[in-house]
Structure formats: structure tokens, C-alpha cells
Amino acid sequence: MNRFIKIAITAMTALSMWACVDNANSNKPANTNANSNANATTAKAPPTLDALMAIEKQAQQAYEKGDGSFFQNMLSDKFSMAEHGQKADKATAVKMISGVKCDVKTPTTYDEQHMSMIDPDTGVITYKATTDATCTYDGKSEKVPSPERVATVFVRNGDQWQAVWHGETAIVDPKAATPKAMPSAAKEEKPAPEANANANSNSNSNSAAAAKPSPDPAVDAMIAVEKSGWEAWKARDAAKLTSISTSSMSFVDLFGNYTATQADTIKSWTGSPCDIKSTSVTDGSGTMFSPTMGVIYFHAAAEGTCGDMKIQPVWGTSFYVKEGDAWKLAFGFENPA
């Protein structure tokens, strides 16, 4: 099981339950056309939601006991993640899990379970987790936030499915979590620091806030698409947002809301009345899992309001796939910054 429980104020969010699935029974060759090319690759069956959720629950038990050894084979060697600007690889995650101990008063429940495929060899599961538990890491104890929206991305490795990323964000009421906009008479006050950085930029604030180029051109290309997406969101350009996302795209926003389809996600992005003056996407970095699939991490901010609510900055995670020559968003996940 796969909870990423936040443990210490200064320590990175502590990792939870991941696992790989022995998919031996689902890897039987699919029926092929008798006239198919002898060199054609037989498609392998995707995992099932029930199979991955069963592993999530098993792994949760190992996490609560601080059994880091359980995760040595559960996490892909390419595992990476970033929570609240802090990054972890496989070694960091296993070490952190090994130091966790949890006092669980009520077992976790797993509701609103969903699975979607990012590409034929990559799947993401999401669910609502509710629990009553306190976990201790490095001598510091913290109550596990509840409820949370949890997501884990798995990749195929031979006959196994291994986790390459995991995230959690609290499910909250946006009105309770978001500061209200200043009254119109007070709007001349200085904008938030995120906006100040772009006060003298041209209309494309993302260019002024561009991060240093990464060593991988593919990561740079994905970051560029992400920036264009934030500009399209600013312009309420649904057509542009559709063109830079996959037909199976899903998304978790900073309030823990989940949208399972491309249409619903874009409707949620463009349906609210917003007055957005500028956007910025900074601190970009990423990891490639294959030549046509990777993940980027970034900090994003906007100066403006949606309704009477001030827009909050986020730490974002976006998985992209390459369709032809174009990189497209397949799954996104946000945490409040």
C-alpha cells in the first residue's frame, strides 16, 4: 500500500506503500492476426486496479513497521519524486521508510479508486485514503493527514510492476484553504513574492522565470510544454490545453480534487471565472523513464484570482508521453506550496 505520510517539519515527506506486481498470469500472448508480421510485438495486458490496490494495502503494513527491505524490490531503480520542493531517489526513500514507526488506531480505508494508463507500460492509481494514525521519523511524531488523495505510478519491468513515483495531498475545502482576494479598493498593495519576480517581465512571464537548462533535452521540452499550458490556462484556451494533453489525461489538484478524463480536467481548468495577470513555472527538473515517457517537477505560481479566491502557488508533478514529435501531459499532481 502506498501512503506517502508526512512525518517531520524539516524532513521530507515520508514515503509509504509501493509494490510491484507479479503479472505472470496476465502476460499470456494476446491473439494475433494470422497475417500479422512475424516481427510484430505481442501486446502485454495492463495490470488491474484490484491487483495494484492489493499491493498498496500489503505495502502499507510494511511501511507502518518501518520495513524498508520490503521496498528494495518494490521501487524501480529509476524511482524519483519531489514533495514540497524536496527530492528523493530510491535509496533515500528506502532509508527513510526504514526509520518510520506508526501507531495506527484505525486501519486505512481506500475509497474512490481509479486506474488509468499513461502509456502501455505505465499505469497510475489514485484513491481517497482515510486513517487515524501517528507516525514517528527521526524522533519527530506527526499525525497522518486525513483524508488524502493518494496516487502511485507503476511501470512494467519484465513480469513485474514497480513504482516509479508516489504522491499525497490533503483533501480540503478550497474556500477554507484559499485566502480571499483583497477588496478592489486595496488592490494596489504589493503582489505576492511569486508575482514580484515577474513584475518587470514581458507578457510571457514564463520566459523571464525560466530555469537553467537541464542535461536532458527531453526534460527541457516537457518543461516548455508545461509553461505553455499555464499560459493557456491563463487565457482560458481549452483548445490549446486539449492539444498538449493526451486523450486519457487525469489530474489531482492542490485541494485533492481528482478528474479522471481529459474533458473533465480541462473543464475544471477553464470553467471558473478567473482574472489572471501572469504565471510562472520555475525550479524545473525531471527524470526520463523511457525515450517517450518522463516526469517533471516544478514550482508554479500565478498573480490573480479565481472568483473571490486568490490563486495559490503549487509544487507540481507532471507525467508526459511523446506522441509523434509532441510531448503531451498524461497525468498531473499538485501540492500546495
Topology record:
Layout: E1 21-22, H1 49-64, E2 80-83, E3 86-89, H2 90-98, E4 100-119, E5 122-137, E6 140-143, E7 148-157, E8 160-170, H3 174-177, H4 193-196, H5 205-208, H6 217-234, H7 238-243, E9 245-252, E10 258-259, H8 262-270, E11 274-290, E12 293-306, E13 309-310, E14 314-323, E15 326-336
Parallel strand pairs: 9-15
Antiparallel strand pairs: 1-8, 2-3, 4-5, 5-6, 5-7, 7-8, 9-10, 11-12, 12-13, 12-14, 14-15
Describe the structure.
With 337 residues, the chain is an alpha+beta fold. It folds into two domains: 21-170, Roll (Nuclear Transport Factor 2, Chain: A), CATH 3.10.450; 174-336, Nuclear Transport Factor 2, Chain: A (Roll). Helix content is 21%, strand content 40%. The chain contains eight helices and 15 strands. A hairpin with a 2-residue loop joins β11 (274-290) and β12 (293-306). The longest helix is centred in the C-terminal third of the chain and has 18 residues, at 217-234. 43% of the residues are buried.
